[in-house]
Design goal:
Elements (H helix, E strand, L loop, with lengths): L9 H7 L10 E8 L4 E4 L2 H8 L7 E8 L1 H17 L8
Antiparallel strand pairs: 1-2, 1-3
């Protein structure tokens, strides 16, 4: 679905983007929910990776990933401004 050009807010754009890969620097937390009801929250991705190797797939009911939305927004905005500044000199928008 195309993004409505009249609404350029980052929130709207982010909601319409189909994300396939997220760099680990934007991941705040991984929550692993086991069928037993136990919930494991991990903020260190290296620790999460090591932990997951010790849990069988059959034990895992769900995995939730929390993203640092503000960090993503700042990064994307900065990258876009950097690219556009080479084409539109003197514009800060």
């Amino acid at each position: 679905m195309p993004i409505d050009r009249k609404d350029r807010s980052f929130d709207r754009i982010f909601d319409e983007v189909d994300v396939h890969n997220v760099p680990s620097k934007f991941i705040m937390m991984v929550k692993i929910i086991l069928h037993s009801g136990e919930t494991i929250e991990v903020r260190d991705l290296d620790e999460a990776s090591a932990l997951i190797h010790h849990i069988s797939q059959e034990e895992v009911a769900d995995v939730q990933i929390s993203l640092d939305y503000d960090k993503i927004k700042n990064h994307v905005t900065g990258e876009v401004k950097s690219v556009l500044s080479t084409h539109f000199k003197g514009s800060d928008e």
